[in-house]
Every structure is written in C-alpha cells, then in structure tokens.
Fold:
Amino acid sequence: MKTSLKSAVRSALGPLAMAVIAAAATVVVTTPAHAAVVVYQNDFNSPTGWTDQSGNGTGISFASVNSLFGAAFQQTFTVETLRIAGNANYSDPSGTGGAYALGMLSSVQNDLLALTFNVGSLGFVNVMMDFAGIGPVACPSCGGPFGFAGQTPIFDVSLYDSPLGTFSFGNPGLLLSTAAMEGNPIASTTTLTWNNRTVSLSTANNTSGWVTLMLDLRAGAGLAGYAAFDNLVVASSDTAGDLGNDPQPSPMPEPTTLALAGLALAALMRRPQRHRSAGSTGRSAM
Structure:
C-alpha cells in the first residue's frame, strides 16, 4: 500500500510541528486603516486682541475669526466671538463654553464659515462641536434680539470639492456630502444649554484631495435665529466618526507572524529524535 504525501509529512514532522504549520496557515493578516488626521481643533478660548464692540458691554466682538484666532477660515458677514466667562448677560452652567465661543446668525445676515484643506486619499471628514441656540442681548452695534425660546438650532455641515485648493461662497463647486447637527430647542435665550454632535462627510468623488468644509446655521420657521458654537474638531480619516482619539493597536505584520511560525517549526525539526529499540515496546520476543 502506498503512503499518501500528507501521511508522509505528518509521519516525518510529528503532530506538534503540524500544529504549528496549521496555526501559521490560519493567521489572518489585516492592514491597519490610516490614522485620523486632525485638520483643525480649537476651543476658541484664547483670541488675540479681542475687544468688546457691542456698545453696551454685552461682550460681543465683530472682528473676523482669522484676526482673532489665526488665518484658517473664510467667512461671510461677521461670525461674532462672544465672551462667556465673567459675562453677566449669559449663563453657562456646564462650563462647556469656557471663556469664549463663536456665534452665528441664520438670517437677517446669513453668516457662513468655511475651511479649505487636503484630505489626501482618506474617505471621510468627521466634524464634532458643541453648540447652543441663544438670543444675544440686543446691543447698539448688532441690533437684535435674534433668537427666541422654543426655537431649534440646526447647523448644516457641507463638504465641497475644491480642486485648486481655493473656495468661493458665490461659486462653491461640487457638493460632495452634507449632514445636519440638530440641537435641543432654546429653553432660555441667555442660558447656554450645549449640544454635542458629530457628523461624517464622505469625500468620494473629490478631484484632487482638496475640499472645503462649510458651517451654516439653518434658517426657517421654528429654527434658531442665532447660535453659539465651540470646541470644534475637524479630522479626516478612512473611518466614519473617527476624530483621532481612539487609537487601535497595530496587528502583527505578516512577515513577523510567519517568521515566528517558521522559527518554531525549525526548532522542532532540529530537536534530536529518540529511537526505540526493538525491545522497547514492552513486549517479550517470542
């Protein structure tokens, strides 16, 4: 009777060596996803040269976001910077807003804020922020009030293709993806009741890796005329919702795994074999 190749290998190597080979053969090698790249992050607590421009001490600056926090954004109209800490006009029970926050009108003047950056080949732009619908105290420089109790703040977060790395509000280009951040209705126009939301925007169909993220407080019946927002994080990633704060352990690369299996097998094969004598079976020769 002829012995099969499999039986011959098993006989030559022994059961333990075969187990090592089987383990190596069943190793699943995974390629780790690209880590998230934090594109922009700011708690807006440290503006440079902030001054109260309200005219009645209500703690509002109309200076551009870039002039206070460094060049990064494009904007329409004002996008105010509100002083929260030490401001008797507003209450922040949770302390989420820190010292300052940005503020945006939804109508009367449609404030917009845009950020252009390169995502490379990553598949998502993930955005997280805190926001609260409020009604800024009327001031000589700003008019108002603009927000009322019962209104709901909704931020539209949109991603546009920007092939040349430039952006224009008048001609924004191809809309790649959009999502909405909806908060709770305003309970008090002077109390900041923060909502924390995260949205993921697909970068599919972008031309060159350059994209533009735009924030817009939605206008409409029953919607907040004004909202503050803060603690903005923008990250690009291959994973929806990944903001770069949940690192995953790297799997063992394939060459290392197989090398370990090979070393174990080699050690087993080099182990001296013990041969039994004819009389070592425990049986008496007849």
Confidence is low (pLDDT under 50) at residues 16-31, 247-286.
